[in-house]
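Hey L., structure's done. Input below.
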Amino acid sequence: MGKYIGALDLGTTSNRFIIFDHSGQIIGLDQMEHEQIYPQPGWVEHNPMEIWRNTEAVIRGALGKTGISGKELAAIGITNQRETTVVWHKKTGQPLYNAIVWQCTRTADICKQLEEGYGQDRFRAQTGLPIATYFSGPKISWILKNVPEAASAAEKGDALFGTIETWAIWWLTGGPRGGAHVTDVTNASRTMLMNLETLQWDEEIRNVLEIPESMLPRIAPSVDSSTWGHTQADGALGATIPVCGALGDQQAALVGQTCFDIGEAKNTYGTGCFLLLNTGTQPVPSRHGLITTVAYQVNGEKPVFCLEGSIAIAGALVQWLRDNLEMIKSAPEVEQLAREVEDNGGAYIVPAFSGLFAPYWRADARGVAAGLTRFVNKGHIARAVLEASAYQTMDIVEAMNKDSGVELKQLKVDGGMVANELLMQFQADILDVPVIRPSVTETTALGAAYAAGMAVGYWAGTDELKRNWSVDKTWESKMSADSRQRLISGWKKAVTRTFNWVD
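Output:
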């Protein structure tokens, strides 16, 4: 068996290939950004061929930097931006349209029609999801309605749909030369097309959205020892390596953080913010604006479910401060600027740039800065920008505590923003629970590596993975209950000011 595991992390802004050793440490990596395409306001696309070319490039790059040969890898695991939708021609491999990204809101009209007479929860019992522009099903429907070439290929049975991991697995295992057309349960659970009980495509929803079954990939466990196929000897790895593990990026972080017990939770602070709570082998329906989704499944075992709260704008708000307002030159400077003041000076920023996700699900909301006075300066604005991620996380934790009946005891954190110590301390203060940062913060890629490694027996199981996890730093709450309450009530007031902005 190979000495290492390779993990492809196919994110919203970049692709990375990371090589891990048996103790879960990073041996080497390579990364490439891809273009963000905005054809009109609210529309977001990627070029699927660029994503595939970059995937091959980062595999070659990481192997080249480390001097490791493809043959030394035991398996490949994949993690990906979820919900992003690709439709391509199975004979040529050519995309029939650009990938429609999870953030894209072009399907608002389709979603409105689906809700008519039924409401937002029309498919929630089957899928665990509200009807929202976020999910893949309406995006596939949009492509079939608006791209004649895609509609005619679908009619002939020549169109294939996939989220980004499906697209990459198909190419890795041969593409038009017999590549595997497969998705894992975690990604399938984000399409609004998979039934949580059967773990299969739901025929009723498929018919409502007019999506032919021939387009849809086979649904497999996240950890699959039957493997989906092998990389091609003439491909970027230069070797035939099993491809046998996949997880949507947020579920991958849950696995990478080894949250294998009921009640364990992690929060990833990236472009958006995603908080997942392990609820065990029973799906817990949400009554408080969260979504019920598959956390992971090991082949031969029952799936494990989680509750998820999704926040659209977290790190993206710091980018906005940098790129749109030009108040800082680089993202890390936000912490220095925020440290120039004692508190937020009464200012709150609610970043509802494309509506609010969990727990509000308000497409009519738009961003506001509230509580401004002549006293407020750029330090207070920087602080309000950071605090927005912590408050949005608190909204989700409150909803989770109500839904699950389990009080959160601690929060494991990962993602780019966890380097910001001011934010981590404020998060502990506002939640009043310890916030824990692990030694390896690349938990998303690590989760994908774990899925593939368990599939081929490189790691024996979840107990062995838990031994790999270690703490880098813990933040405890230092805030008085009165201060906490005062700050929270200001935030809640600011959130209500975002509602009903779009008619």
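The CA atoms of residues 318 and 331 lie 6 Å apart. The mean pLDDT is 93.

-- N.
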